[in-house]
Amino acid sequence: MPEQEGNAQATAGNKRDFRRYLRREAVILALLSALAVIFFVAVTALSHIYEAQQEFLGNRWFLRGAADLKQSHFESAVTEFRAALLYARDSYTYQLNLAEALVGLKRTAEAYAYFINLWDREPENGLVNLELARIAAQKGETEQALRYYHNAIYATWPGDQQVQRRDTRLELIEYLLNIDAKAHAQAELIALAANLEDDPVQQSRVGDLFLQAQDYEHALGEYRLSLKAEPHDPTALAGAGFSAFQLGRYSLAESYLQAAVSANPNDAQSAARLRTAALVMQMDPFQRQISVALRDRIVLKAFAAAGQRLESCSSAGAAKGPATIPVAQPGLTEEWAKMEPRITELGLRRDPDLVNTAMELVFSIERQTSNACGAASETDAALLLIARLHESN
Amino acid sequence: VDIPPNPSDATLVEERRPTPALPFLGRAPEAFMRLVFREDRFFLVLSVFIGIFAGLSVVCFRFAIAWCRIYLLGSGATLTPLRMVLAPSLAGLFIAVLVIHVFPLARGSGVNQTKAALYIYNGYIPLRTAVGKFITAALAIGSGHSLGPEDPSLQIGASLASALGRRMRLSRDRMRLIAPVGAAAGLAAAFNAPISAVLFVIEEVIGRWTAGILGSVVLSAVSSVVVMRWFLGSESMFRIPAVQMERPSELIAYSVLGIVGGLASVAFSSGIATLRPWCKALPRWTQYFQPAIAGLLIGIIAVLGAPQVMGAGYVYIDEAMHGQFTWQMLAILAGLKIIATLLSFVSGTPGGMFAPTLFIGAMLGAAVGGAEHVLFPHLSGSPGTYALVGMGVLFAGFLRAPMTSVFMVLEVSGNYSIILPVLIANTFAYLISRGLQPTAIFDVLTRQDGLELPSMEEQREEGTLRVEDAMRPASRAVLDTVLEAHDSLDQVLQRWDAKLPEVRLVRLDPTGWSIITRQALEIMVKEGKGNLTLGSALSGRQILFLHPDNPLETALRYVDRWPLLPVVNRADFRKLEGVISQQDVLQRYQLFGEEEGTPE
Q1: What does A16-68 look like in DSSP terms, one character per residue?
Q2: Do A86 and B49 touch (CB under 8 A)?
Q3: Rounded to an integer, what distance in angstroms lies between the CA atom of residue A70 and that of residue A74?
Q4: What contacts B358, CB < 8 A, 6 or more positions away?
Q5: Stretch B439-466: mean pLDDT
Q6: pTM for the structure as a whole
Q7: Distance of CA B563 to CAs B184, B542, B554, B589, Å?
Q8: DSSP designation for B483
Q9: Which residues in chain A touch residue B56, judged by CB atoms under 8 angstroms apart?
């Protein structure tokens, strides 16, 4: 019996202990929750102070850096942007500016590391893509450069997107022209021209690029557009004249070049081209709407000029040594000498086919002497251009 | 064999029928309270609170370090030479006074103090340690001493948890565990990497996996990381670069990194093992000046062109990962950081070695990667990849936490494709470090402090004795002694001659085993039970059986209850593989002790 009583007491004691435990733990849990809330609020307040200070310091260093970057003080800009990043490590703007400053310092590898990270974060950022394209172009990584240039063209830009994209494409075209990728450059230029606004300066610039890419037809088109707005722009006139000249449209070239020289008398290149174009017009016996007599006189003049050219080239070749004399030249001299008695006004009038034969010989002589002896007189240059013109026709 | 009833069962039966505290609500509230407040469940709830408090403390600790840095070294990226020399020196002097007179326990490794709390002090870590560690480590790191915030965070978490546990009056078992739970929370918040923190605490502090421990540690780590991210954001410590490995042959390059990292780890840990006792042996008055002198030397290193060695150095790890240093510079920085960290740590300045380890690893990794790129330009790994792998390498080689090192890199990088390089490089580093420096750095430090804490690495490496190592195999002689259930008691007694052992195993049907002694058999026969079969006579007297792969410790628990135990096949419980007795077990342990040598 006493044992049973003892057990009952122990059981009651256990129950009391357990209830006390439950009450105590519940109170503790409530206290812990309250304490956690209090600490949380306190740390939140502290965090606000901390963040405000971090933001202030970050901004302060960033503004200093930006000012230095503007003045091209790249060294101090880098230090200041780095300091700014200590307070906002992930700030896109700070990193971008730091990378720009590093580019300014020509620390391309470091800049590249930042740009590539920024690219990972925002692959559609135009500036980052453009900078990466420039770095890749510097490194000679054409494929990468083209990829980033194209990304930049279709990327998002702050401010006027159209202008930024156009400028990027212009930069890409210049890069393509530098690496002699003319076909690719022409394609980009056509895309650029399609989206160009009515800005004569831009149109003229695109015309220049078309010229560099040897797309004279499009170049002429752009210059013409530019000249609609600015009819007396000497650059556009000269460009249009040169394009027309290259296309063999000498009459048009003559008029543009004439206007270009009038607008800018110091433009010696256009003046020389104008003279050549005029000569081409004068020396071409196959022009329409000229009399037979004039045609015959042109042929006589051209034949004589070819003979002189042959002679001067032979003597220059002889002076330099036998090795420089072209193989075909002796045959041409013989042929010219053989034909020379027949090339008279009378001979040409009697045999109209002789015009063609004579001019063919003239063209052959001009071509071969041009290859062997290089630059010739303006008349020879004109004859050569006429030869090319009729060759293509 | 009779199994006595558990004496506490009666009490439990009583407790299952408590009188409701609030009669009008019936038993529901009390049942709910019981469900929640059972100690093991309450411990889980408490772990969440520990995580919250540890997370909040670590956030404050980070603020404190940042403020110390701004006010002591300046807010700019470029530091003035005067500040670089004066800040760590004067802060060192102040820290020494605080550590010697106010917070003596703030010195030393937080990992070891947590282990000491677990194994020696029943979970006790004074709250003053947390306060001391907070103040002194923030000052030290903020002033430019080459130390990191992770170990102090770990200790702050452990100390807070211990204080909370004491208030809760938890049982001794829970109290012991509470410090590691807090440590995991502190480390997770400091690293912003809960998985690594959990693994590290399990791998290096607790040393064993159980559902209860894992649950508490995970809950505290996760809650602390949530709190930390709430305030400081979820960005990882570094901007993670793109990780790539084009050819499997590149693993050779990472192996080289593992070897170099292993050697660097040995140099680093040997430096600590040699210099720390030397510094401690100097006259007591020098302890006032040791942190200041360390600070002065670090300042001089910084003024001479390597300010990167000051502080935790996460900014520079980030820069190294993104190719902003040449490989030569990276190698120099790795070497100088080893020196700077040695100076700070052996001088007794409070602070951790995690961040310096990561710094050294990142620099070394990127340097090795850079040098390999010069020699073999076709290698595809970026400096960032090598830096990440390098961090894991030093973690494995220096801190000797191979599992944590792998997961840490995975967690930090968030990239699974880095796993092969990390595994290969870490394995090399770990093996080299272990081969050249048999004692892990945490064990070196505890032994230098005069403590003998269990070494987790040694425990992992310790050979485990199994039942098969001690049992007598089932030879013909043994099998001949086994009795079958269908034999009658009379038959058995008649055949039991003097040459046979006194105790014999009985194979019961369908499965199960029992034993019988000759004396017991004689008594039963005398009682007139001779015509009974052994099976019916011994029913209800089954004994435990073991399997060959059971740990010998398991056998030790039962061999004193029965003179002989059967060791049976796992696929066929009736098939005897051997027998084992208490004598066999003790003999095997004796032999094992002779093989291993007597521990110190």
Answers
A1: HHHHHHHHHHHHHHHHHHHHHHHHHHHHHHHHHHHHHHHHHHHHHHHHHHHHH
A2: no
A3: 9
A4: B148, B317, B391, B394, B395
A5: 81
A6: 0.71
A7: 46, 13, 15, 18
A8: E
A9: 39-40, 43
Residue with tokens 């506490």: B8
At B154, the amino acid letter reads L
**CB contacts, 8 Å: B66 with chain A:** 50, 54
Q: Which position has the higher pLDDT, B335 or B115? A: B335
pLDDT value, residue B134: 95
- A41 near B CB under 8 A: no
- Comparing C-alpha atoms, which of B562, B571, B515, B599 is closest to residue B584? B562
User: Which residues pair with residue B94 across a beta bridge?
Assistant: none
Q: How far apart are CA B577 and CA B298, in angstroms?
A: 66
C-alpha to C-alpha distance for B272 and B309, rounded to whole angstroms: 17
Does ipTM surpass 0.85 in this model?
A: no
Contact A99, A131 (CB under 8 A): yes
Chain B residues inside the 8 Å CB shell of A86: 75, 77, 315
Rounded Cα–Cα distance for residues B521 and B501 (Å) = 13
Tell me, yes or no, if A143 comes closer than 8 A to chain B by beta carbon: no
Q: What is the pLDDT of residue A327?
A: 45
Evaluated on CA atoms B120, B121, B122, B127, the torsion sign reads negative
- The pLDDT of residue A21 is above 80: no
**Do residue B75 and residue A18 have CB atoms under 8 angstroms apart?**
no
Residue A293 and residue A355: Cα distance in Å, rounded? 12
Is B49 an 8 Å CB contact of chain A?
Answer: yes
Find tokens 């039962």 and name the residue. Answer: B558
- pLDDT at position A195 is 76
Nearest residue on chain B to A17, judged by CA atoms? B15
At B102, give phi and psi (nearest 5°): -115, -45
Q: Cβ contacts (< 8 Å) between B30 and chain A: which residues?
A: 22
**Cα–Cα distance for residue pair B182/B204, rounded to 1 Å:** 14
Q: What is the pLDDT of residue B477?
A: 79
Q: Tell me: pLDDT of A159 over 60.
A: yes
Q: What DSSP line would sit under A232-248, residue for residue?
A: T-HHHHHHHHHHHHHTT
**pLDDT tens string A166-204:** 889 989 999 999 888 888 888 888 888 887 777 888 888
